[in-house]
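User: structure tokens for this one?
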Amino acid sequence: MTTEAEAQAPARVPPPPDREGEAGRSWAALAILLVGTFVTVLDYFIANVAIPSVQSDLNATAAQGQLVVIGYGVAFTCGMITGGRVGDLYGRRKMFALGMVFFTIASAACGFAPNADFLIVARVVQGAAAALMVPQVLGILGVVYTGAARVRAFTVYGLVVGFAAVFGQVIGGLLITVDIAGLDWRTIFLINIPIGVVTLWLTPRKVPESRSDDRRGLDIPGALLVTAALVALVVGLVEGQSAGWPVWSLVCLAATVPLFAAFVSHTRRRARTGSGPLIEPALFHNRVFSQGLVASLSYFLAMGSFFLLLALFLQQGRGLSPLESGLLFFTLGAGYFGSSVVSAQLAPKIGRRLVAVGPALLATGYVIVGLTAHAQGSDGSVLLLIPGLLVAGFGMGMTTGPLTGVVLSGAAPEHAAAASGVVNTVQEGGAAIGVAVVGAVFFPVLGDNPPASEYPYAFGMALIPLVVFALIASALSVTLPKEKQSG
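Assistant:
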């Protein structure tokens, strides 16, 4: 019961919310999360330039050198669906931090690896840690930000992913060339240690915790099925192509069909019985998510493999060093950065038209680059590739972040990390499959011991499927439901 004095006293008005403080904390959270994203994507690409040094220093075979790259990529790609679901269940910030702990420890193990086998195992652990960490980033962004702020956050996310991919070779080449304390290639892994420590210190202070209201346990059989299916697909394609399609690679590819079928059947059964599947089938009932996912797959088939193709052309066909070819990647980065800045302003206004124009520009850039390379042959200046690379980079920047945001806008917040795990898996898997497609065209056209004069033609032929993939992504994006674009 209130007293008379209390009744006559003026009502207390709660203090206004600290919007500026909340905004500052949320953008600080974005910066921390994107540092985690940057190092995981960077380590996917940066190892390419270090392989010759690794082989020389550790007496590694060519196969072991490939496994240093592939081991990380397979663990990264195949673990993200499970990593996303774990974040929904047990806390996205907690799983991001746990992933960073293991990533930092694995980076130290890579940096101090005494032999090639130890390095390969450490890289697999590093990739698995990245698979736990990265889905939480998109999951947290999808929950913390709404409306125009979400569009800006995903645009910045795309910018960071692009920079890590585009400049991976440059950063790796510089670190190895500078040779800090005589550490040579080890520097590219050891630099993750201080980054990881600082990120871990800031994460509980700046990043908000979130999780799904769905408290049903982790679907372990589903996790095993989808991981086995993805391993069979990625290893079968990537290793099979490089090894000349031996029988074991064809067996792996054939096994993906029953494994994925078993996973789908298992998932539907758990959904019907209310047991909590690894991926909620209702996610795919939303057209924005399902069609956007296919568009994202097609886009990353076109985009992810181009870096390897361009590096092969510049280094093997034109005789550039890894650092010299990496510097030419700055052109892609310039276009990427410029369009990302523009995209942040345009995405809230034109929505799906932006993510439709981006892949079309990417296809245009590829056509310009291919025609220029063919016209110049093996003797013309590689600087003439710059206009086409600028256009391609501009298309990448208009698509990577905005398309990711569009796809995730079709997912319910309670499944944010699981949905982002699916999206990340499709993106990384698309890039890996794209590499296999490029290799299946590029190397057979070249033949054995080709002269430099054959490289421009093989380069142009390998660009054709990438142009087709980009145009498919554009067509799928333009037909996405308009009303879902605001997020």
